Amino acid sequence: MQTLVKVVVDAMGGDNAPAEVVKGAVDAVNARKDIKVILTGQKPLVERELQKYTFPKEQVELVHASEVIEMAEPPVNAVRTKRDSSLVVGMNLVRRGEADALVSAGSTGAVLVGGQVLVGRLKGVERPPLAPLIPTKNGVSLLVDCGANVDARPSHLLQFAKMGSIYMEHVVGIKNPRVGIVNIGAEEEKGNALVKETFPLLKECGDINFIGSVEARDIPSGVCDVIVCEAFVGNVILKLYEGVASTLIGKVKEGLMSDLRSKVGALLIKPALKTTLKSFDSSKYGGAPLLGLKGLVVKTHGSSKAGEIKNSIIQCVQFKQQEINEKIKERI
Amino acid sequence: MQTLVKVVVDAMGGDNAPAEVVKGAVDAVNARKDIKVILTGQKPLVERELQKYTFPKEQVELVHASEVIEMAEPPVNAVRTKRDSSLVVGMNLVRRGEADALVSAGSTGAVLVGGQVLVGRLKGVERPPLAPLIPTKNGVSLLVDCGANVDARPSHLLQFAKMGSIYMEHVVGIKNPRVGIVNIGAEEEKGNALVKETFPLLKECGDINFIGSVEARDIPSGVCDVIVCEAFVGNVILKLYEGVASTLIGKVKEGLMSDLRSKVGALLIKPALKTTLKSFDSSKYGGAPLLGLKGLVVKTHGSSKAGEIKNSIIQCVQFKQQEINEKIKERI
Fold this sequence. Notes:
2 copies of one chain form a homodimer.
Chain A: E1 5-10, H1 19-31, E2 35-41, H2 43-50, E3 60-64, H3 75-81, H4 86-95, E4 101-104, H5 108-119, E5 133-136, E6 139-144, H6 154-172, E7 178-183, H7 193-204, E8 209-215, E9 226-228, H8 231-256, H9 260-279, E10 288-290, E11 296-299, H10 306-321, H11 324-331
Parallel strand pairs in A: 1-2, 1-4, 2-3, 4-11, 6-9, 7-8, 7-9
Antiparallel strand pairs in A: 5-6, 10-11
Pfam families (chains A, B): FA_synthesis
Subunit structure (chains A, B): Homodimer. Probably interacts with PlsY.
InterPro entries (chains A, B): FA_synthesis (IPR003664), Phospholipid_synth_PlsX-like (IPR012281)
């Protein structure tokens, strides 16, 4: 018999909690026998949602947590004071080894703080990065770090490259993933102080497939699989990706509605366009893992619907079964 | 009689030089009586291009320069050793006051180095930033700095904000332009060390209309007019803008060609879509000024066609007539 992977799901986190979160959890256990979901949150609210669905009861557990961490709360304070929040209760389950992983669509800051403070780092890991997958022309790339550690040092970036490579190879399934460092030019002598110091470390590292500097312009075309950068730059890349895409799609739609001829054309192209744009979407891979923790913490979009929650839960199974943390411990 | 504004145009710079550059220069003098263009470059090549057009001879001068700085040359070395290149000869004309401004589509690095070393900084300006206009939902925003100075200090960013505001108000015509600093969250306590130190300086500065932190996600919707950031981040923003837009447009086109129904629809929407996407393009405003120099240096895209060269030349007239450098000297 396969071992069950136990995934805590923060039932109160995110804009669509608890309804979409609970639905995602139910969909996950209905899809796979090897998952046990532990929902943390306010019992009456979560139970009311659970009652809407049919699912194998033994695969879902509910742990009551009376408090909720709001999106706008200062993270450190929230994690410290709201000891009975759905997030903190969930993190503690992972810390005590009663669960393998946690998925939350709640406050990014609180997830990052909780991951480091409550779950804790693997031995040897200096800074655990947040590593979302971003869509590219023909697939996805992993962006590390993307918000966990501002003002990082070269040794941190080297660890990001190693952990990112392990994740892409064993969770996403890209053999010998290409690692690039975000830079303002392709030449080795270009860059700011951090990049110039990090470049030789990456170049000398035998564990990774380093291909050199990557300009931001080339990221969307999928020029590498693991994109290494410090958190401020990573955050700008992630957010600008969303911003440019949504403004541009808005512009296209505006053009389609500008006259009758275009409106007729719009009706004809709608199905194909929808399929195409869907392929430029990374949510089917799940959320962003916080790498290098004792256990796995996955942050999904605040606006996650059931589908993304379900995919994030399944991602945890892959992470556990592929023994990613063991691989990280060996290679860090 | 109006005073002539003298603009040096680097006839050998860029992917489409000298043909498109010379055409742009001719178009500029045919459009306006108040411009004199000084073309620098290899005389036989430039003359051959000039012979194709009719234009007022007294508005165009040709200054021979035997050398050309290639795109891939190390900038500092190129500017130092190629004393008779079209760029260096042009920069020296500005330095000696024989011209008011210079436009080049050549190597960005060489233009930045030449601007600082040959043309020189205005008194009080610590670092001259490169400040391109980027398209937004309903207009443009100025991105300062975008590649000139990596590892900047808070005092530099304060000057970028001041110079950028003057430029947006008097060249682009935005009254009381809103200034934002790129950050990884909207709250004042967020950010890396540089942003945290710069924030209070911007907040206390009476000369600018500071609106606080701006997340990269909101840049494309035009949330502020002057976007302040250090050069590495600015470069990532500029390049990623281009990368995401081109990948996404490629995806849309791919969708339009996927079946017969969509192909018919594509024919119908083509004109409207073209107009819409054209509105998401900032080249009509000219190139990116290097602010804070004794004289004006404008860098246009390496791939510039005649239209962008022409617009960049006209932008120099506006810059001169609005006495931007005098305003910068007063307020820095």
